[in-house]
Specification:
Number of strands of chain B: 11
Helix content of chain B: under 10%
Distance between the termini of chain A: 34 Å
Helix content of chain A: under 10%
Oligomer: heterodimer
Distance between the termini of chain B: 38 Å
Order of helices and strands of chain A: EEEEEEEEEEE
Shape of chain B: globular
Strand content of chain B: over 45%
Largest interface: A-B, 25 and 24 residues
Number of strands of chain A: 11
Number of helices of chain A: 0
Strand content of chain A: 35-45%
Radius of gyration of chain A: 13 Å
Structural class of chain B: mainly beta
Chain lengths: 114, 111
């Protein structure tokens, strides 16, 4: 089982609040990712990072921001939560080396914005 | 056209059945193919991967790639209720970061 952790697992919050979703991995992976997934729907890549001080936007436009100050930590922040942000957020990590792209996922954070 | 197409299901089978899950893809240059399993309210976990064409077997699971048809399959023998999950195919898009995921097929194995 992959050593990647997400907190909180569940969050209910009011509109307009600032929230930070935490993601940490203990595998020393250079690459980290954030995906958004609505129930029963496909994964959408919203942010990724190749390493410390590297962040990029993914395929799906998102109002969230990320930072990568330490290899093991990749938090995602919403400055002002809205009901449209209600979803599941999945963090993943993978090694830079190797011929094949491999990603290991955390358990996810289920966010409900009222 | 999406780069990876996957039938969303749901697929409902009795316990012990052989299950076939499939994806098609568009780019013949793709080389690495993966299957992830996602239980309800959990993150996906890597189940199997194959390189190029051919079969790979792991216990009750067999992954198969047919590059001539651009078709990948996951077979589950002697399916169990614990196999009930969503199965996502994923392809290494040969860029430095990206996995291309299918939309997932929901499988229900009835006791």
């Amino acid at each position: 089982e992959a050593d990647i952790y997400q907190t909180p697992r569940y969050l209910v919050i009011g509109t307009g609040k600032k929230i930070t979703l935490e993601c940490s991995q203990t595998m020393g992976h250079d690459k980290m990712y954030w995906y958004q997934q609505d129930p029963g729907m496909e994964l959408h890549l919203i942010h990724y990072s190749y390493g410390v001080n590297s962040t990029e936007k993914g395929d799906l436009s998102s109002e969230s921001t990320v930072s990568r100050i330490r290899t093991e930590h990749f938090p995602l922040t919403l400055e002002s939560a809205r009901p449209s942000h209600t979803s599941q957020y999945l963090c993943a990590s993978g090694p830079r080396t190797g011929r094949m792209e491999t990603q290991y996922f955390g358990p996810g954070t289920r966010l409900l914005v009222l | 056209q999406k780069e990876v197409e996957q039938d969303p299901g749901p697929l409902s089978v009795p316990e012990g059945a052989i299950v076939s899950l499939n994806c098609t893809y568009s780019n013949s240059a793709f080389q690495y193919f993966m299957w992830y399993r996602q239980y309800s309210r959990k993150g996906p976990e890597l189940l199997m991967y194959t390189y190029s064409s051919g079969n790979k077997e792991d216990g009750r699971f067999t992954a198969q790639v047919d590059k001539s048809s651009k078709y990948i399959s996951l077979f589950i023998r002697d399916s169990q209720p614990s196999d009930s999950a969503t199965y996502l195919c994923a392809i290494d898009g040969d860029s430095s970061y990206k996995l291309i995921f299918g939309s997932g097929t929901r499988l229900l194995v009835r006791p």
